[in-house]
Amino acid sequence: MKYALLDRGDPLSRELAEKFHALASEHGLERSEGTPDIVLSIGGDGTLLHAFHRFRARVDDIAFIGVHTGHLGFYADWQKDELPELVEMIATSEPNKVRYPLIRVEITTRGGTSAYLALNEFTLKCVDGTLVAGIDINDEPFEMFRGDGIVISTPSGSTGYNKSLGGAVIHPSLEALQIAEIASINNRVYRTLGSSVILPKHHHCDIVPDPEEPLYIGIDHLILQMEGVLSIRCSVADDKITFARYRPFPFWHRVREAFIGSDSR
């Protein structure tokens, strides 16, 4: 079994990374930054996002494991004091491999088209002032958006930025994407739907901004500033991310622990 490891860079995460390397060596696991079978992230959910984007070109061939140095995260199902148990399981047992959908984002500019994958969400904002953009669903005009921005999330990312905008929390077994509005303008002149929209895998949406307006484009934690954007197509990607689960990690339990608490009843 070959593995790669990415840590958050703080003293605790680095200490845990060294401990994992020592334990892994004792159990015969091979460290490989080029062709790992599993990728371990130590830190938080943000660290796992970094790990995903570092290895996104091999996303079909590897499985991810998250170790959280704080509280339980949505992607990190192991705690900082559980490394010996984790290494033992990696070395001796086969995991249950769970696959979550991703978003494919195709951005067309005057210079051509570039494609990206997002694990959590894609965000679009105008550099200066209000974003004005047409939104088409399945090549049919849907609305003319005016407001602060647009967020398109995966089901696993629905608990993040999307939820703060009033979007629905979606189980990551569903292959879908969700469109949420950031502070849309709704009055007698300008109208949008005003609620999030959920599209299944075989649907897509196109965002058509003013190509003269510079834009901020977010792909998870990555922020790009682009000009001359002609259109942006978002769809459920054919690729998926794989997580190696060595014990149950129920999604709704994570949602409850994160937002409600175990002692709320």
From TrEMBL:
NCBIfam families: PRK04885.1. Gene3D superfamilies: Probable inorganic polyphosphate/atp-NAD kinase, domain 1 (3.40.50.10330), Probable inorganic polyphosphate/atp-NAD kinase, domain 2 (2.60.200.30). It comes from Cohnella faecalis. Pfam families: NAD_kinase (PF01513), NAD_kinase_C (PF20143). One of its GO terms (biological process) is NAD+ metabolic process. It is found in: Cytoplasm. The active site is at D45. The lineage of its organism: Bacteria, Bacillati, Bacillota, Bacilli, Bacillales. It is an enzyme of class 2 (transferase). Involved in the regulation of the intracellular balance of NAD and NADP, and is a key enzyme in the biosynthesis of NADP. Catalyzes specifically the phosphorylation on 2'-hydroxyl of the adenosine moiety of NAD to yield NADP. Its EC number is 2.7.1.23. This is NAD kinase.
